Amino acid sequence: MSTGEHMVKCRHRTTGYPEKNVAKPARPSSQPLYLGSRPLPVLRLFAINTSHISAECHIRSSALPMSASNLHSSRIEPQMEKRSKRYMDLLRRRLPLLFSITLAIYAFAWYPLPAAYQGAEGIMVALFLFALTQEQGRPMRTNTAFLLCMGLLVYLVAGLAYHKLVLPEGFKVSVRFSRYYLKPLLIVIVAFGLALARPRFAWLFLPIAFCGLLVQLALTIDGSLIDQILQGYRPSFGFTNAQHSGVAFGTALLALIIFAPRILHTRKPRRYVYGALLLCAIAIAAACVLVTQVRAVWLALALALPIGFVLSLVYRDRGRKNTFKGIYLPVFALLAVIGITSALLLTTGLEDRLEQRLVATDEQIQELQEALTLEDVARTSTTIRVASWAAAVDWFSERPILGWGPGTTPQLIEKAPYFDDWFKNQFGHLHNSYLEAAVSLGTVGLLLLLGLVVYLGWAIIQAYRSGAMPRDAFIFSWTFFIFWLVVNCFESYIMFNTGHVITACVGGFLYHFYLKAEIKDHDRTPGNESGD
After folding, report:
1. What is the pLDDT of residue 226?
2. Residue 422: inside a domain, yes or no?
3. Which residues span the domain enclosing 515?
4. What 3-state DSSP class applies to 39?
5. For burial by CB atoms within 10 Å, which of 174, 247, 476, 492 has the most?
6. pLDDT higher than 80, residue 191
């Protein structure tokens, strides 16, 4: 037997393959070693090219059946991937419905059901973040309001690290207070959710919020509270204090008057029902504004309602005939408020108490001068506010660029030498949202917030000019702006849920008109059409 035949048979025995199915090996690429004139058999054996043996072994191993675990995993992974994709597609398709449900809970439950309100807020943020990863949220990635909020977030995070290094001993910034200044992002989130929802739901959003106020009122009012109110007591109706309940019902009263023509613009059988409900709602809101005795709300309404009436005349629809519902109904609603207020004063005996409340400011001129110089702070609401504002100006002048940091206002009040123990125990804020933001965030943070307000105002004007926003919503936007501008001069609503929810609901409702048009324009752009 030759050496080559011997090698082939050896390979057959080692691999176990039949001889007839195996091709002869190729000539080895390397020469065998020789000892003298004869080759060494063992070295010649190992000098044979074994690449074909590896290939055959690979073919053999691939032909073997898979193990049970490998086969199971190979089947499960595609199934899980398909199931995950199916769930994601379902969530994407149901995103408008989920947003609508969450927004309804958020608007309704903010005081009657605090746990539901907090849960809805978290879900709302999660849905918005999910939408940013989908085609529906692509326009929001470059939205100016969203980018301003992201800039504010970066500033707050950087400010936390900065203030920990530079603040004097005994001062500490707060992450919880930092979140309060990021709440304007909720305006963008609410507007985006309303833009995805059906138009009919967007117009039901504010009435849902008002129903939440009525439920809160029903849960807190009883016979004994009514007796106390008739004796001059200022009720809070379960809110933080009377100021917060007054501003909530003041906002509702403003909206009811401005949107009265729209509410009554129905067929006659329904018009009478809606008219009766509207009159009851206006009476309840006006009564709550009256009995809470918040002078800042009275002043804000006294400025906002006449401006709203003037705007309704300036921006009336000149293409239509001036009907009763279009022009005179707002006047009728305003007169109804005055009549209801007068009737309440005459029948309840509150006029003496309210007169004392209005005249009290005139009798405090000397006390105000002392509070302004921080010499002696009397325990009245007016002098307390003036003293807080005077101290805030001094604190702002010490750190005008980056401020003291969120959460340091209570610490500044605690360490101030011109406030007594009663003042320090009672108050931990400055009773002014603008000064609160200036002291905590400095000029940089204040400019970011101001930029957001200016942009939202510009967007509302653009929405009205393009026809995306109706006339009554445009008028309401400016009357609410005047109202909110005034009341925030006398209370730090930027630090409380009352301010957060009102700005999110009202601001989101108004901004959604512009945002909805922007999303539609984005979808019409070539290359951006959705595959749905």
Report:
1. 87
2. no
3. 95-315+324-362+428-524
4. strand
5. 247
6. yes
